[in-house]
Amino acid sequence: MRTFEDTYRHKGLRKQLVDQLKQKGITDERVLTAILQIPRHYFLDSALDRVAYEDRAFPIAEGQTISQPYTVAYQTQLLEVKPYEKVLEIGTGSGYQAIVLGEMNAQVYTIERQKKLFEEHRGFVLRSKYPNIKYFYGDGYEGLPTYAPFDKVIVTAAAPYIPPKLIEQLKVGGKMVIPVGEGNIQRMLRLTKQRDGSVTEELFDNFSFVPMLEGKNN
């Protein structure tokens, strides 16, 4: 069961969450405003309603998680999204990250490999509010060549290596934010594609994500 009522209490908890994110170093006002607008409790079972605005991850279906708000804000801030940019997201998961990008007026193309999670998004209450988000069932390592090139790519699962097809689908000058590494801890990277097809890498903080798996799961 989920609760689809956004009360003054929920809005007050979101304000507290945004204040925490500022204290942790999130400075992009567009990111903070998006998080302030989006009812995170809609993405969770109503049993978790009281804790939905704590800055931590929660389990969702198929062994996946809804990421910690700080992680969502951190990746989104690194992505430097501008309105109307085409953004490819690998790993729809709960859909929260995609909707943060949608709230920031990006044109979002999001891929989910878990059939059950993909199907759940069809009837999600916020879906009609964001016609700028397109949902796909597929293999994240393959990307979406039909819709390429993309201004930005964001990967929300731990990649053991940088998927070459995602680099191919990035515009020259485009950026990809991706946690890379095997094991429990990954390093957040920001890659910028150069004119010759190579990328420059910037290294950021360590995080812990569920692994990015190949193929699709029925």
From TrEMBL:
Keywords: Cytoplasm, Methyltransferase, S-adenosyl-L-methionine, Transferase. One of its GO terms (biological process) is methylation. The keyword Cytoplasm applies. Its EC number is 2.1.1.77. It is found in: Cytoplasm. The active site is at residue 67. It catalyses: [protein]-L-isoaspartate + S-adenosyl-L-methionine = [protein]-L-isoaspartate alpha-methyl ester + S-adenosyl-L-homocysteine. The keyword Membrane does not apply. Signal peptide: none annotated. GO terms for molecular function: protein-L-isoaspartate (D-aspartate) O-methyltransferase activity. Transmembrane segments: none annotated. Its main location: cytoplasm. CDD domains: AdoMet_MTases (cd02440). It comes from the Bacteria. It holds the Pfam family PCMT. Belongs to the methyltransferase superfamily. L-isoaspartyl/D-aspartyl protein methyltransferase family. PANTHER family: PROTEIN-L-ISOASPARTATE O-METHYLTRANSFERASE, PROTEIN-L-ISOASPARTATE(D-ASPARTATE) O-METHYLTRANSFERASE. Catalyzes the methyl esterification of L-isoaspartyl residues in peptides and proteins that result from spontaneous decomposition of normal L-aspartyl and L-asparaginyl residues. It plays a role in the repair and/or degradation of damaged proteins. This is Protein-L-isoaspartate O-methyltransferase. It comes from Niastella soli.
